[in-house]
Fold each of these.
Amino acid sequence: MDYHGKPYYSLDAWCKNTYGEKLYKIALDAGLTCPNRDGTLDSRGCIFCSAGGSGEFAAGRLPGAEPVDGPFSIRKQLEAGKKLLEKKKTGRRYIAYFQAYTNTYGPVDYLASIYRQALMEPDIAGISIATRPDCLGTEIMRLFASLKQYFPDKFIWIELGLQTIHEETALFIRRGYPLSCFTEAMEALHKADIPVIVHVILGLPGETEEMLLQTIRFLNRCGIFGIKLQLLHILENTDLAVLYRAGKVPVLSMDAYLSYLQKCIAALSPDIVIHRVTGDGPKNILIAPSWSSNKRNVLNTLHQRMKLSSIRQGQCYESGTFDSLQIDCALYVGQGHFSPDHSPDQ
Ligand code: SF4
């Protein structure tokens, strides 16, 4: 496996191995909602989720983006995204990323039309669809099968926001589905031969390092294609922000985050593609941790530390122990102290 000089198998490395060049992601807002927000399961959303449903980076919403007729014309958002990338891109192709809210939650005809709009663009290599495992019914799976037939040269990826395998944390963050729902969806997606990328949050309230690593080891056995390792951000207008301001949840220091991250990477199967190692909260609504807004610094420090300690993805995958790793530090910043009683409902 060629990691192209990095100590882990990044998405960039995968793109170069597969397409011979970098692919650029264009985040999209398809005007959908989420069952965890529209009252079907809950109306408050996950406790960390911003009002934009994690779609603040959608091409039509970025400063400097040319106005599009409403946020939902996928073709126009793609055009706007390409324009913004014009100066920095070296490759010729893109990934259309359906990011905001739950992108399989809507009438199937509408979903078919938005996915097709993206897949029909000649310079779109494939689409990545962020959704929930409880929103992948039979009709949606049929739609994927027909799209795969119609666009055999393009990929369709599904991104699932699992965040943790631990039911008590899932309840606390109001994820709204049990782990069994995730494993059933994984089975269906495997059968349909659709690669899955799983989102995991580092630093969830009440989770120890061992709990986090249990999530990573579980995912190693699920046959996932990729993973996004993301820091827990405290964003404005979320229930998590209320708890944070009341001193009821702490956030990770950069040292602690990098320590967790290195262990996750060392424990991860060497074949799993790491699509993200930071996750940048939108600066205008980011409350904490403030160090995370300097993404370049976080990435440089991670690479430097991994190099110095000779840590590499999969190093502890077989052994299951971290005896070979030289990592210390596990510090929180802020005064917050988490207790499971600090639920947002109390
Ligand atoms: S499932 Fe996703 S979009 Fe829905 S509330 Fe949770 S984080 Fe937000």
Note: The radius of gyration is 19 Å.
Amino acid sequence: MAQRHRVVIVGGGFGGINAAKALAKANVDVTIVDRTNHHLFQPLLYQVAAGILPEGLIAPAIRSVVGDQRNCQVALAEVQDIDVENRVVIAREPDTGELRLPYDTLVLAAGATHSYFGNEEKFAQYAPGMKTIEDARYLRDGILAKYEMAELETDPAEKKRWLTFAIIGAGPTGVELAGQIAELAHVVLPRDYRHIDTTSTRILLLEGAPAVLPPFDEKLQKWTHDKLTKMGVEIRTNTLAVDMDRSSITVKGPDGSEEIIPCRTRIWAAGVQGSPLARVLAGKLGIDVDRAGRIPVGPDCSVNGRSDIYAVGDIMTLDKLPGVAQVAMQQGKYVGKLVTGRLAGQPAPPPFKYFDKGSMATIGYKAAVAESFGMKMTGVIGFLAWGFIHIMYLVGWGNRFGALYSWLRAMVFSKNRGHRIITFDGAENVAHRGVGGPISKQRLGDNVPVPDAPTELSGMRVSTPDDAS
Ligand SMILES: Cc1cc2nc3c(=O)[nH]c(=O)nc-3n(C[C@H](O)[C@H](O)[C@H](O)COP(=O)(O)OP(=O)(O)OC[C@H]3O[C@@H](n4cnc5c(N)ncnc54)[C@H](O)[C@@H]3O)c2cc1C
């Protein structure tokens, strides 16, 4: 029997899943290869970091998303190379074995990763970003553990340091995180701690541009600025992070002067670059990636004019399209349909055209901004629009109802966060600011003072093992 046309899709995110679905009726064998087993809804990652949503609700298994699609299989492996001559995707299996996936058509949909604008060495270890479920869990540890440290701390200056959070980048992600930390500090946590006033939390939102939410309408920027300020967020625009270490961040203000701010938590929400696979493929084809490490594609999303390689979503660059979910979804669908049509002998479709449905960002409970089809919404209206859109784009009714229930519980009924889970290991890890897996004090080579005398808290004595003997 003749071999069916093989489509390999690298990445089961917004672009990859939509490409696969658009190939459901085609006479092809589709393989989605992803280094995670889940299709991640990144726009709600910050809610995992804030303990509002459990991760499963925003990360259904890719297998279950395409479970009914008989021509589609899924492989858990990390793609490392692409042999464009022999048309083979080369990936590493979790047990380190090599997986070779031959293709007739390749769809590259591997998304983006953080960009520290050339400061990777210095910043990545101290200012984690948020792109994956692991990142969100790590940030949740990073945020909640600081309150635990502050509760145990006896030195007022150190207490303050534990309770200072700096968010670098005031795009939608930075704004959403700042709003969530403010709600934790002012609404959720005050009743739970005995030795700290959580409302004294200092939240700095740093932005290099002159306003928060740079791509948004000026009116919405101002609304967001005022709302965050009322929530206790200290916004500094025209300000850059120029240095950081374990316990401080150095910022350069609009007048060029530098200030060292003591703080234990920095969160990177400032920049992204295309997945390293863009460079791998570009190198193979002898073309250049753009400044943000993205591979250029033609009007039909093909790479270098080839009819066997396409790139969609955050990994590609075309007509200055923004790195948003809608672009990835629409391009994924477009390429899936294009391949289906071509194999059915139909004429090539017109060039890809992006249909902009608008943008939105939440600031907190009953507070969001949205612009769509010329309409500008703020406050409760914006919040309802935001909630409706996000619920509808989650995959599966179970997840939609689950998210709705979690929101009502977290924001309306209990004013609590149902998923405030941290462990000693998690707290220890973030306390020493290592990134990526538990890091011991020895591995960090850090002079972390380990008190050998019991720590005195006002009205409470913490016993050491010696006390028990
Ligand atoms: C915190 C955050 C908030 C956001 N909020 C919004 C928002 O409100 N609205 C909006 O429109 N957009 C938002 N975005 C952007 C949006 O999520 C992206 O534009 C979209 O996910 C891009 O889709 P994609 O398919 O290109 O990549 P992704 O959805 O990132 O999918 C890429 C997939 O490729 C896999 N992968 C990567 N490298 C490899 C490899 N080497 N081997 C195998 N698999 C690999 C990854 O595991 C992932 O599953 C947000 C992004 C983030 C990070």
Note: DSSP finds 15 helices and 24 strands in the chain.
Amino acid sequence: MWTTSPFSYYKILLSLFVALCCSLARLSLPLRGWRRPAAPVRGAAAGRQRERRRDGAAPTPTSVNYHFTRQCNYKCGFCFHTAKTSFVLPLEEAKRGLAMLKEAGMEKINFSGGEPFLQDRGEFVGKLVQFCKQVLKLPSVSIVSNGSMIREQWFKKYGEYLDILAISCDSFDEEVNVLIGRGQGKKNHVEKLHKLRKWCRDYAVAFKINSVINRFNIEEDMNEQIKALNPVRWKVFQCLLIEGENCGEDALREVEKFLISDDDFERFLDRHKNVSCLVPESNQKVKLEVAFHSYILAKWKYGLRTRSFHAY
Ligand code: SF4
């Protein structure tokens, strides 16, 4: 039984900054060979889900993005989750929130940032990943990272609890990476990407790549490099303007010089149409999802508050 009051329950959920998505269709696309066997939802949990659906109550938070930090070692000019605060929920509180989400029906968790491996040199995200797989037994546990701080030692310790690692890579030209803000001094982002690809293979973690297409990489041909890395999925985003994050008075970034038109984005997609793992994410689609997530989050929080009064 939870000892938390409805108010503290609500506060934890706010701190978690979850983006909820009930669209199983989008997230259940087949990823060949990567997914560890999923535990079907049975018994009391399944009953609760049915009950919620019948009540017309809050939707089930099937898939959750947990952006637990805004801090990052990179300074990408288009970033829309910037370091406006250094707050990170303490580990045990984060685990408690995750357990609540599991209780509410979560099946998939993705840890993101900022840079998730910055906190406690990757130990924080490692412990959360282990908790989600070992204790909560979630069918899908993933991380999105810029990859720069991940060491093989991390895979040795936590690799068995991770299903998917998605690494951001916007260019295979180091000069372009520096222009974008993904410079690492003497370190080479592309070399690190290849190391991470190998470690994912060695430790049986599915490997994905995320790319943001912007003014500086729009003309690049990435066909050969992506095919050589052979990710299970290559997610290609159109550079996005978010007021207050990368645009406007309070913003820590100025995205304007990175933006591209819809036609430019289509041109990039067309150039890479033979890469079978490519999944495009246009601005329109991401904006719709942001709006949808906000709506679902509000509905879900309200539902949990109501439910907590009844059940606890
Ligand atoms: S790596 Fe990601 S979180 Fe870090 S600055 Fe770049 S876009 Fe933002």
Note: The radius of gyration is 20 Å.
Amino acid sequence: MTIQTLPSGVMSTLQPTDHPFLNGPFRPMFNEYIADTDSLRVIGEIPRDLDGIFIRNTHNQIHQPLGMFHPFDGDGMLHAVHFHDGRATYRNRFVQTTGFLAEQAARRSLWAGLLEPEKASRRGSGAMGAMKDNAGTDIICHAGLLLATMSQGSEPWRLDPITLDTLGPDTNWARKIPDGISSHYKVDPETGEMMFFNYPEHWPYMHYGVIDRNNRLVHYVPVELPGARWPHDLGITRNYSILHDTPHFFDPELLKRGQHKMTFHPEMPARFGVIPRHGDGSQVRWFEAKACHILHLANCYEDGDEIVMDGCIMPEPKLHPVGAADGKDIYARIKARLDKHNNPTMMHRWRFNLRTGATTEQYLDDEITEFPVVSNDYVGRPYRYSYNVLYQPGEWLFRGLKRFDLHSGAVQRYEYGPGRYGSEPQVARRLGARDEDDGYVTVFVTDMNQDRSECLVLDARDISRGPLATIVLPERIPVGTHACWVEGDRIPGEHRDPAAWA
Ligand SMILES: [Fe+2]
């Protein structure tokens, strides 16, 4: 196959700008490609037992913004590499949300972004009340189809995992959930169930639900919180889900007036609600822990009487206000707000004792990392390895990966080198794998030195060796974050051979 550019004709009206999140590693792209390894350069050798699809979502701005641009405002674009039998096919496609199609038809921006929602020319959906449904943040596969979302701001957009064609909002259950959905669903590898939550700004402030392996909504219950909250993730174990109520939320008085000012309350505890997988709100057991905020969990599992929850703790969320100034200063403030070195996060473990009601917690590391990922086959189960991203100081860019062996305490790291920036990785166990780390780690890297992008395949047992294979993409793609791995035998749905995860 030669490199094909799809005749999608995406129209961009972006004007030259010095905005840091529209230039350099963040420069958006407008071509949509299909290309395989007959035409793409491969450095090294793609393992023949790497079988499945690595997919990353990316905010990719198309039109001249109506106001100040925030890097989460761009339309969703998926980048995917489909591995099979030692070969790979790359595709990238926009998530064709209603907002995307309306702005393509209008040939301009119709929605403003996170920073100046009052400049929107029409009503929008979303956590901020006026955002375009860009579906550019999260990506996961369930029941044989992709789900792309923007947390609490998006329909659950379904896409074909191979072609990346947008199929539309989920037709089975989206209409039954009026308060929307969060990002970061969790799929049980054994049952194929997908657990989710939402967090509306009105009573009861949270719902929790389960969608079965056949994509039927089988459980949806209210979970009453003390007020509007801003959770980002949930955890699952074999029998429970863990819901988050952290003291980092919008000022309730300002919220009554429609204003969203995030406030951290260090005097309040964080609360974590352990709910039986199919339990109702009255069965939630709340555990208190020290004040913090959490974006992303690594994994959760049951250990005797205890629920173990590992993730990246933000012990003291510091807010760099944005939105009140014009010109370059605002860009610097957006960067400062996103710079993890101003707002450190590191691996942390909470234990919730179901017998005593006690919480214990401990730091697992003191280095700044985030976007922890584990093998799909170990989600909700005792596990050993987490692969996290390392940050470039002063930037919202990922300079490398850190592998945690949570049994031995050993760590490995792999850094991409100067001018090279990665994304959230994924763990791809090889065909016939027996051990948790028997397989590969995949990640996209944007190389500013060579003006190109690559998909790297690393040995999950020894990431420090560097890539086993580097697939050079047809065009430099902008950096992005959340990704997923779809095992080849999950493409038809959540009906895997038990041998796949046993
Ligand atoms: Fe996230």
Note: Residues 183-184, 232, 295-296, 482 surround fe (ii) ion (CB under 6 Å).
